[in-house]
């Protein structure tokens, strides 16, 4: 057996910031070198950031990625780091003739090994995901080569993200190569309960490949996606060896005992068991094992519980959206209700209370407790607050235009949205919307009113999860940030006298179970009824959800935490006569 010290760079690159990402690569490679690592592995498409979406189709962007890769290899050598091999993801092109149905320029989701100032070997992702949030048939062509580098007498194979998730392809080829270690750069977004799935997957693939497996995942927020890190290493039997923390940058350094390489060097063509042939490219970096040394104890970070995971994902999503887009502060309407209370708390935890501005906008229908609950939250958290009563503003509108019923109710919401956007323009704040998934699903949001804003922290939280997260946050060490009355009082939009959400919606525990099955699990009407939902309620709620699609298309982005969010995941036509209730 031979020893290798592996460093997994669980980092937070920024899409489009190629020079900044290159600087980060140098910084983290130096950290790995200082820790005595023999190999450092960065994440999928680290050089460009991920996902870069249609930037991928611009030749100038691809060329910049390739040039940055070569440049950073030279910089590593120039700073004395050239002898430490670096595996890193970047954007490349296939160099094949254009053909119908192929993405413009034939881009590749590629990985390369940097060594001694050069790009010494490279490959590209073989399996291209095209489900959920992924559109990779739109952006990439498939790779058909697998690199295996011999490092200090150990053969190390490289695969990329989805190649681990699908049967056949590179992982099935690894067993044929005799590699002692498989390293996998990833850009795997967070969703609830995914960490357990990842560990089981890595364990199974390690057993299939017959070697240890090192899985490195990026961390950070990118528009609607949040990447949670959770990098890990398992041995050839699938046992967990080391694991990084979630939702934070970390260099996971681990010593491994790996079998010495015995395979012949040279090219090898292997049946990938998915209808393709993969060419194995072997490259000798160093044949001599490292001198025996005392290994460091492996680190296994403690897992977060389910609610802590979700809350940390929301905080990270808000923080990165604010900072990566250059905002100094945020602003939101604070009503005294639970949705705005949780949104304000997430924002304060993300960027600090001093950068969070809230506006209390009482109307003629606002209850006394709404104002006092909002004021109490401001006091507890130290937020910047101002009070702007809207009754006179609404009256001024009503003097000019006669409105009744729902139109009159929505006017109040639109006045509030206009005030927030005006303050955003004046002071440069990012407006946070406070709507939850239950409201978005059923259309209980006012266009250009409470839906106005730039980012929506809780748009993927059903109302029952809003309550659960609020109670969880209050139970954490320190003074509870959310007034108890905001959590326990009956929810109301307060747009007419004595209004309650349950005037027109069922209780939220009933509604949310139905919405979860219809929206997130794509159940049809008959399936929903078979699952135990009330037939009359199924008909009514399906109608509300279907009719509200045009509103959701105009809603701001927000962090995805469920298997199917409104946005990148769930895309239905607005103009659509199909109804589950009619067939």
From TrEMBL:
Record key words, sorted: ATP-binding, Ligase, NAD, Nucleotide-binding
InterPro entries reported for this sequence: C-N_Hydrolase, C-N_Hydrolase_sf, Gln-dep_NAD_synthase, NAD/GMP_synthase, NAD_synthase, Nitrilase/CN_hydratase_CS, Rossmann-like_a/b/a_fold
The EC number(s) this enzyme carries: 6.3.5.1
Domain CN hydrolase: 4-258
GO BP, one annotated term: NAD+ biosynthetic process
Pathway: Cofactor biosynthesis; NAD(+) biosynthesis; NAD(+) from deamido-NAD(+) (L-Gln route): step 1/1
Pfam families, per the entry: CN_hydrolase, NAD_synthase
Keyword Cell inner membrane among UniProt keywords: no
Residues given in the record as deamido-NAD(+) binding sites: 410, 439, 551
Catalytic activity line of the entry: deamido-NAD(+) + L-glutamine + ATP + H2O = L-glutamate + AMP + diphosphate + NAD(+) + H(+)
Feature: compositional bias, Basic and acidic residues: 491-503
SUPFAM superfamilies recorded: Adenine nucleotide alpha hydrolases-like (SSF52402), Carbon-nitrogen hydrolase (SSF56317)
GO cellular-component term (any): cytoplasm
Binding site for L-glutamine: 131, 188, 194
Binding-site residues, ATP: 333-340, 434
Span list, region Disordered: 474-506
Entry GO MF terms: ATP binding; glutaminase activity; NAD+ synthase (glutamine-hydrolyzing) activity; NAD+ synthase activity; nitrilase activity
Known function: Catalyzes the ATP-dependent amidation of deamido-NAD to form NAD. Uses L-glutamine as a nitrogen source.
Matches recorded under NCBIfam families: nadE, PRK13981.1
Entry similarity comment: Belongs to the NAD synthetase family. In the C-terminal section; belongs to the NAD synthetase family.
Record-given protein name: Glutamine-dependent NAD(+) synthetase
Gene: nadE
